[in-house]
Amino acid sequence: MPSTSFAGRRPQYIEQYARTLAAYQRYGDITRDIASEQDRINYLDSLLQNENANLTNLNEVFRVRPPDASGAMELLRQQYASEDASRRRASAGTARRAAGLSLPKAQADELEALLVNPTTRAPSSARDLAVSLITEDTTPEQVEDIIGILQTQGMDASLIAQVQRQADSVARGTAASGAARALSPEEQAAEQAMQQQLEALFFAGQAGIRGGYDGQAIVERREKTAAPKGVNFSTEEQAFQAALAALADGAIVVEDFSTEEDFEYAKGLYDEAAAKQAYRNDQRINFEAEVLASRQRVAQLETARAEAPGAQYTDPGRERATRELVARGYKPDLNQGRYLQYQKSPYYDAMIQADDLLVGIIANDFELEAQTEPQRLAFALINQLDQRGRPYDIKKVERQLGKVLKGDELQEGIAFALATREYKSKDLQSMSSRQLLRDERAQAGKQEEQAKAADADLQGAIDDELLQQELFVKRLPKTTTTDRAVLGARITAAKAAKIAEEEAAASPRREFIALEPEQVGSDLPDEPATPAPRAQAAPAPAPAAEPVSRFDQPIPEGFEPAGPPAPDAAPAPKTIRKRWNADKGMFEVVP
Description:
- This protein has 591 residues and is mostly helical.
- It is 61% helix and 2% strand.
- The protein contains 19 helices and two strands.
- The protein has a two-stranded antiparallel ribbon with strand order 1-2.
- A hairpin with a 4-residue loop joins strand 1 (577-581) and strand 2 (586-590).
- The longest helix has 52 residues, at 10-61.
- It is elongated and about 170 Å long.
- The two termini are 74 Å apart.
- Residues 508-571 have low confidence and may be disordered.
């Protein structure tokens, strides 16, 4: 079997490698866990957004809308027509009764004409006319009118007796009561429909009662009826409003009330209102099953989101760093992480105790006082060291206190010594200083809350902007292609551009302006030819280079001017042109 014992630094290297590998795996696990939690939060947010949109649509469906003015005018016209018909029926009934109570004027005039003139008087004809006027429909009142006319005109009693016998044997009519004519079934149906429409119009609007007059009676009773003893409500209406308030999450449960009696009483009033529709139109959404079910789903999703692991933090990057610190044994949340960098120090616990002590002093506004023997010793030591005016640190304090204190008492003494030092340096023995620190911390807390709110608003605005950009991109025409030649050309061009960019970034920075090759070739002046020395003389050193452009910049390193011409002839004037090579980062001579 292979040996597992290593010599030299191999064990140290192996352990370091194992720790590095474990840290890498742990960081990956933390990253995946946070990503999974954020996916869950995003999924719940999408469900919550959809359900809120559904609830908004339901609220819009059951929203109370103002009544239609044209419909109201039509109902008023129908109401006026109905009242006019009722008046006509009453007038007709009155006319029928009046007609039955007296003889028609034309018949009375005709009967009187036969008796009034002495020269043309015809009693027998008058008797015959009176007998003919009496029929089965003749009423006793009309018979009395006929007999009265005959008696007034002095007709013989025997003739009047004949007319009376005719009336007694024939007349059976009765005068009408004068009441209006009863409505026909069709008229009754139309009248009932119109009354229902008028009632609906009367109770339309937000303050109208959905149950009509019956519901209004219950509503008025709730407002006037005092609640019974044993419940925490003054009136029935107050209990009913408490029930509606409990429906914010879609259900009335006993946890929404202070006592079970309050729950039972409010629930009973709500059930009565639901059965009789004894509620205002603007309260209707609290009685629709679809709305209540949607509210329950929203409440469940909000609860699930609040309980999800990813809801306890807003910054995934910060949470990742926090979990990594916790995995390494740190406590980033302790005392708001003010002493995180000292956690591996032996004085970390003493620092935490000192900070807690100072926080309590500032919050409760009291002075620092030594309560135990270690605290009194630490307080005396700090005062003594401050009076001497010599510099000291926590190690010196530990050595001095360690002569008489051990273990937890030593830690308590060191903590109190640190607190005393801070207490004196910040002048916390002054009440005004403590108040100033409290105000500063309160202001810092408010600013932090405002910053969080501003971050949330900014994130919302960014999300909206990204959504708009996504929608804009979706509306753009698609330019993708599957042509292998086109794709290959695009890939080659992208690689070339990337290589050029990397080379440009890696090249040394130049202090002169890089012109385009065409501009360099056209703007550079012609250089005069360099005169050649005699063949017998030693070659002269190269002259200084002329300015290469109007910017008067030196020629980069690597540029070599043209060599001397042949010694047997004077060179002709020659033009030298140079061009900037961006790939090489230098000028080149143009042939």
